[in-house]
Amino acid sequence: MQQPLMYSFVEKKQLNEMMVTFQECLDLPIQVIDDQGLILQSCGKLNFFCSKFQHYLPMDDTCEKLHINASKKAINLGETYIFSCHANLNHIVFPLLNNKVFLGSILVGPFLMDYPDSILFQDIAKRYQIPTSNLLDLYDEARNIKILTPKLVTQVSKLLYYLFSNLITESKQQLIMNKGKLYQQAKINESIQMYKFNKTESDTLYPYEKEKELLTKVRTGNIQDAKGVLNDLLGYVFFSAGSSLDIIKSRAVELCSLLSRAAIEGGSPSDTILKINNNFIKTLQQITSFDNLCFKLQEIVEAFMESMFISVPTKQNEITKKAINFIAKNFADDITLENVAEHVHLNPSYFSTIFKQYTGSSFKEYLNMVRIEESKRLLANTDYSIIDIAVATGFDNQSYFSKVFKKYTGLSPRQYR
Predict the structure, then answer these.
(1) Do the bridges between strand 90-98 and strand 101-111 make them parallel or antiparallel, or are there none, so unpaired?
(2) Mean pLDDT, to the nearest integer, of 8-21?
(3) CB-count burial class (<10 Å; 0-12, 13-18, 19+) for 256
(4) Cis omega (within 30 of 0) on the bond before 110?
(5) How large a percentage of the chain has pLDDT more than 90?
């Protein structure tokens, strides 16, 4: 007989030892079910209530089907899931995944959160047409089901997660990601509702102040606040773009360009930021859902901000940041290495050395990158001609601008637009 897929990723003996520990400490039944809801392992005395009650369930609405549906709910939530079964008995389920493949679940229960009363049995008798004599038998069995307070149920749920989440590393990571997506979508929905509720002519305009606030949070390394402002911005984008994923992707590329500049101004090596930016644009083509796109943007914000914490001497750090700020304000002008070196009061040769050490790019490469990032924003948001954008971002002529633009993006300015 073929081994269940679960045991290809989890050692059966280890899993059993964990279940025994859990059951001995809490005196609660615990089972391992496969991806079809069938029991693979069981620990603890199972109450006869369940075996007697199952006879009254419809053929198309089995306990196995309910347990799998609860497992899928837990996957979406990114954590354990507490639910009531057909007979109003309580259970907790924790799903196990490997590379997004559902292997099965750890199932705890049944248990009650209050003493069984007539209301509970009247309800199940009405729904499943259980004869009175059989209902009395179920009532007798129900008195043997363990009762937990709601507070204790919450703690048991947490313990189940802490104990079994490290069985499969990918499982834990996927659940954490799903939980993060769910939380982010809730915050974005709050923002959408705010824009709908306060809909005025001014509210329909793009919130550039929010955008500036986001860039400030990134520059200063405030990651939690940056995520909050990002979700507000995404709420506006969804509010204004509706269900157009293409429009939202376009906005995402613009945001990424702005964030990359903010990260560089905050101290990130420019070559690192370029790689992150280019990888994001490539990944964007494969994204087909709004929540994945939003979560990817959150990852980009984190990646940019993490890259700002590089190890360089403090004095050089401050000097280079001063130079970066000068470039950010003057990149559209005809500035040179000597101009910037003079601004930070250093010899040009020495300045060139520490600048490359800090940013990972030569002065010319860095300046071109800043100019290209600004040109990408103008191409996406304005109707300016390509020659006008070239001049506005500090390039002498359209031919050289197009050459540099293709070097950094792989596209011509016209293709990018």
Answers:
(1) antiparallel
(2) 86
(3) buried
(4) yes
(5) 7
Tens of pLDDT, residues 238-268: 777 666 777 777 777 777 777 777 777 666 6
DSSP state of 4: P
Distance CA 30, CA 157 (A): 12
Model pLDDT, residue 83 = 92
Closest CA to 96 of 169, 158, 36: 169
* Angle ∠(397,399,403) on CA atoms, nearest 5: 120
Sheet with 101-111, edge to edge strand ranges: 39-43, 30-34, 101-111, 90-98, 81-84
Closest alpha carbon to 300 in 385, 214, 368, 381: 214
Relative orientation angle of helices 270-284 and 290-306, to the nearest 10 degrees: 170
Q: What is the DSSP letter of 117?
A: -
Q: What are phi and psi of 147, to 5 degrees?
A: -110, 130
Any residues with CB less than 8 A from the CB of 305 and at least 6 apart, and which? 218, 221, 223, 226, 263, 266
Going from the N-terminus, what domains does the chain have, and what CATH number goes with each? 5-167 (3.30.450), 176-306 (no CATH), 314-416 (1.10.10.60)
Q: Is 320 exposed, middle or buried (0-12, 13-18, 19+ CB in 10 A)?
A: buried
Burial class of 1 by CB neighbour count within 10 A (0 to 12, 13 to 18, 19+): exposed
Rounded (10°) CA dihedral 59, 61, 63, 68: 130
pLDDT at 31: 93
Close Cβ partners of 367 (under 8 Å, ≥ 6 residues apart): 327, 331, 335, 394
Q: Are 106 and 30 in contact (CB under 8 A)?
A: yes
Side chain identity, residue 364:
K
